[in-house]
User: Which sequence fits this backbone?
């Protein structure tokens, strides 16, 4: 028994018969975890779909309130971070320790950048009283002309009171969906920071890249969710 | 009843093996930080038993209140809290993890010839999440309880009640992740950890049932999680997704909630069906009839189970066409369930049946689950459902499936694998008695409730018209008998830890790989990597194997 043990690389856990088995199992588990994430966000997308159909006019008007410039910039930032993450995986596989640390650090920086831009957007909503709850204001929808910046771009007609009230549903979903997405980003950044410390000690550049690969899946998945959010929340009503 | 297949080693010379997973390491930390699936299974067993008795005590209070027509033991809103806590504890802290987290955790790796689950750390994490969820539920009870019903119905839960919805919601959210991780771990393990020769169609049916249940855990539970997040945000921030005054729709909550909570009943029952397949085969000395059909019927239940959720909503104002479709789909789920029942019956046919305790519980399961399942068809039929829903008929229906089905299966499994887990036999005669007492107590408790329901007694009220009292007295009397039936196993199983007969490797002459190693097993389960060279439930293979051992001993 002792002899066979020494043949194993140090990163092979004892209950696996081979490194391949360990790697397969970890990858498969990650994909399954992403499936659970799809179901988690799926509930929100379902709600969005239903309410968009019911309260179409409100969703169009409320969507016009989102800042497409910041949204686009954030999309670019996030895709860049996916690129640096993919480079990180490559560095890990080709055993480049310093490259890996650099890539992971860049990914953290871009992730923080995304959250920073998101908070600028949230602040805008706060100032306009578009955060659902007691202080929610219908001003921008009952009297669009009062909101000069948005009005000059879209020339929205005033919504009837009943429909205008349903914009709160849009913003509820906006904040829950982007908030849940941001929460995933924050968790991801936390794990990235942990990985940077481990990577400096050479943990992922000795032939065992599974951890970095699997985290990469997670990071790309969170990006992908954002692509859908960007399309459904920002872009879909641009020309209505 | 004289015939038995129990085959114990000579008690004068037999010893519990010195090295096993229980003795390998000592001390509290070696348990709290363990990665061993068997130890985690035992941790789960202790914690779910604890919560079962809390839930049971709450059930006792409910039955005591319902002894008389007036609400006299407790105030009506206390009664609301008691039945809510009973539901939350029993569903999220007992039924969902019961068989998978204890027996599944312990035996899936052993049945497929692996050393452990694929992700031991995740397995331990899932236990800690369960414990945190459990502590939050206890906190809720101490802090004054919650009275929404276990279904968290909006807008009641978001606007109208002032009880501890948040802590209960958080508890369910966290316990949900425990369940997701267990399911995920099982799927990965069953895909990637099978020993050489262990093909999918050589897996014990216990594994197939857990695979199907795991699919439900992994796909369903996240939807419950997001529904709870939305309820929490609606309570705290005031977002309007389920709030009709803002244009939100409470029905959406119902859809999201039941999208999990209907499949959840299959999460609860499928692992139990897996136990029954093992027990029926072992105690009738026959391969399970129609192995492939039983295996696929588990998967079919998992798949159909996702498309029937709206039958919980027939009276809630969903469209008539939706009622029609969901009613039809509900009938379809009855088909794979019936396939299982018929195949077990055919397994018994011309088998060499013996009546050890696990088999008695399994018979109990087959009878009670069949009644529970058939009454489910009444409820799936929209016409009768409108009359019967929200009455005691529903209470009786799901207790027949959950208590009569799942709990019987759980007890069958605990008795069946107890010798393997502890190395010692439970006392046979007294446990047979407990099985019979449970069966009698169960029927006395819940059968009258079918009649009460058809007479129109609504569920979730502390008081009822005086004419229903006789049947309610029967039900409460039955509950006391049932209580005795559940206390007995705790006592004699603990007793057997020290005084039970030494079981040896394979007291039942069962064919599963888990029986071909020592009891209690080694931490690594097997001394060498097993190779599966025969079909599941191949009793001839077992005989040849034993003949070989006798020959080599000579």
Assistant:
């Amino acid at each position: 028994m002792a002899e066979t043990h020494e043949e194993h690389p140090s990163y092979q856990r004892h209950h696996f018969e081979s490194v391949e088995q360990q790697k397969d199992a970890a990858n498969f588990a990650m994909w399954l975890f992403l499936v659970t994430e799809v179901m988690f966000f799926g509930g929100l997308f379902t709600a969005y779909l239903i309410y968009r159909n019911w309260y179409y006019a409100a969703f169009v008007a409320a969507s016009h309130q989102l800042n497409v410039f910041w949204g686009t910039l954030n999309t670019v930032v996030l895709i860049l971070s996916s690129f640096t993450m993919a480079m990180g995986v490559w560095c890990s596989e080709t055993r480049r320790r310093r490259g890996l640390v650099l890539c992971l650090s860049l990914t953290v920086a871009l992730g923080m950048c995304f959250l920073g831009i998101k908070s600028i957007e949230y602040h805008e909503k706060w100032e306009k009283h578009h955060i659902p709850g007691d202080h929610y204001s219908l001003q921008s929808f009952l009297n669009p002309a009062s909101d000069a910046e948005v009005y000059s771009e879209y020339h929205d007609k005033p919504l009837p009171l009943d429909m205008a009230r349903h914009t709160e549903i849009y913003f509820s979903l906006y904040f829950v969906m982007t908030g849940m997405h941001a929460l995933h980003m924050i968790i991801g950044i936390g794990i990235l920071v942990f990985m940077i410390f481990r990577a400096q000690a050479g943990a992922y550049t000795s032939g065992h890249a599974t951890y970095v690969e699997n985290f990469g899946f997670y990071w790309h998945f969170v990006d992908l969710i954002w692509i859908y959010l960007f399309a459904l929340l920002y872009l879909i009503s641009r020309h209505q | 009843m004289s015939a038995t297949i129990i085959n114990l080693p000579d008690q004068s010379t037999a010893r519990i093996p010195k090295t096993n997973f229980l003795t390998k390491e000592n001390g509290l930390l070696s348990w709290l930080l363990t990665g061993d699936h068997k130890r985690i299974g035992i941790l789960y067993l202790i914690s779910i038993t604890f919560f079962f008795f809390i839930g049971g005590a709450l059930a006792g209070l409910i039955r005591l209140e319902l002894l008389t027509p007036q609400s006299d033991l407790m105030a009506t809103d206390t009664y609301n809290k008691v039945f809510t806590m009973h539901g939350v504890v029993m569903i999220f802290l007992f039924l969902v993890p019961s068989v998978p987290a204890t027996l599944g955790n312990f035996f899936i790796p052993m049945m497929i010839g692996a050393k452990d689950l694929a992700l031991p750390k995740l397995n331990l994490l899932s236990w800690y999440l369960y414990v945190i969820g459990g502590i939050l539920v206890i906190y809720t009870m101490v802090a004054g309880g919650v009275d929404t019903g276990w279904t968290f119905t909006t807008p009641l839960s978001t606007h109208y009640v002032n009880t501890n919805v948040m802590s209960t919601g958080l508890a369910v959210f966290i316990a949900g992740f425990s369940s997701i991780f267990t399911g995920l771990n099982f799927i990965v393990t069953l895909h990637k950890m099978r020993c050489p020769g262990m093909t999918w169609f050589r897996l014990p049916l216990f594994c197939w049932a857990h695979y199907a249940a795991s699919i439900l855990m992994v796909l369903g539970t996240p939807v419950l999680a997001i529904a709870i997040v939305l309820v929490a945000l609606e309570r705290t921030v005031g977002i309007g997704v389920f709030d009709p005054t803002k244009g939100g729709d409470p029905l959406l909550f119902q859809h999201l909630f039941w999208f999990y909570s209907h499949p959840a009943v299959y999460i609860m029952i499928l692992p139990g069906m897996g136990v029954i397949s093992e027990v029926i085969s072992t105690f009738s000395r026959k391969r399970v009839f129609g192995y492939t059909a039983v295996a696929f019927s588990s998967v079919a239940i998992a798949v159909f189970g996702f498309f029937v959720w709206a039958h919980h909503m027939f009276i809630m104002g969903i469209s008539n066409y939706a009622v029609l479709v969901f009613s039809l789909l509900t009938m379809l789920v009855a088909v794979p369930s019936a396939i299982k029942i018929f195949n077990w019956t055919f397994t018994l046919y011309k088998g060499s049946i013996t009546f050890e305790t696990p088999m008695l519980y399994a018979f109990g399961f087959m009878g009670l689950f069949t009644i529970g399942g058939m009454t489910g068809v009444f409820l799936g039929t929209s016409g009768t459902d409108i009359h019967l829903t929200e009455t005691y008929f529903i209470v009786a229906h799901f207790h027949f499936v959950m208590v009569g089905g799942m709990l019987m299966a759980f007890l069958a499994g605990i008795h069946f694998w107890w010798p393997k887990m502890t190395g010692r036999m439970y006392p046979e005669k007294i446990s047979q008695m407990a099985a019979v007492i449970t069966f009698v107590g169960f029927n006395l408790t819940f059968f009258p409730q079918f009649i009460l329901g058809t007479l129109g007694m609504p569920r979730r009220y502390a008081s009822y018209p005086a004419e229903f009292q006789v049947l309610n007295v029967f039900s409460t009397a039955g509950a006391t008998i049932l209580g005795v039936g559940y206390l007995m196993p705790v006592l004699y199983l603990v007793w057997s830890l020290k005084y039970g007969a030494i079981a040896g490797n394979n007291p039942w002459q069962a064919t599963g790989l888990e029986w071909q190693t020592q009891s209690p097993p080694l931490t690594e389960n097997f001394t060498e990597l097993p190779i599966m060279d025969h079909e599941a439930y191949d009793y001839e293979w077992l005989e040849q194997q034993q003949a070989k051992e006798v020959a080599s001993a000579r």
Remarks:
- The interface with chain A takes residues 114-116, 118-120, 122, 180, 184-185, 187-189, 191-193, 218-223, 225-227, 229-230, 233, 237-241, 246-249, 252, 256, 259, 524, 529 of chain B (CB under 8 Å).
- The radius of gyration of chain B is 23 Å.
